[in-house]
Amino acid sequence: MSHNIDLPRHRYVHVMESAVMRAGSPERTLPCVWWGMSATPGRMFGCHILMESGAVVVDLPLHALRHHPEATQLWRPSDAQRWDAYGWHVEAHEPTYLTGLGCRVLSPDHRAEAGRGTLWFYLDHGGDGYSLEPGQHKHHWVVALENGAFTCIPQDMMLVEESSFTVPGGIIPPVKRQARVWTCE
Question: pTM for the whole thing?
C-alpha cells in the first residue's frame, strides 16, 4: 500500500475547467482520464488526471470531477467526500460483484435517502489506528451520482440495489458497525 495509487482501471471523466485552468470557467468541463489517487491524512483524497493537452494534474479534490460533461453545478467538498483520509496507506479495489450496481446514498444521519448513483470502486486504508479499530474502519466508496458528480462515502452510508437479491426501495436498516476484534485463538 502507498500514498499514491493507480485506480483499478482508468476512467474517462470530465474536470471542472476552473479547477485546472487559469481563469477557467466554473460553467464548463474538460474531458480527462482519471488514472490515480493519493491519500494524505487530514485531507480529501487527491485525484490524478491526464488532460487532452497532455498535462498531468495531481491531487485534485473529488468535487472537481464529473462523470457527465454538462454537470457543472456547484459541488462542495462535503458533498463529494464525507471523511478525510486518515492514513498515508490506501488501496483501491473494484469488486466484480458490486461494481456497476446502483445504490441509494444516505444522509449523514443515515435516516433518509440523499441521492442515487452507481458504484465504481472503493478505497481502503491500512496500517493506521483507525483502520485497526473495527468501529472506525471504513471502505470509502466512489459513487457516480445521477446528477453527474461523484461522492465518496463509507459503506454504512449506502444501500446497494441488486435486482436479483435486494428489496427495491426498502426501509433503511439500523445496521451496526462492528465493534470488536474477532480472533479464533
Answer: 0.92
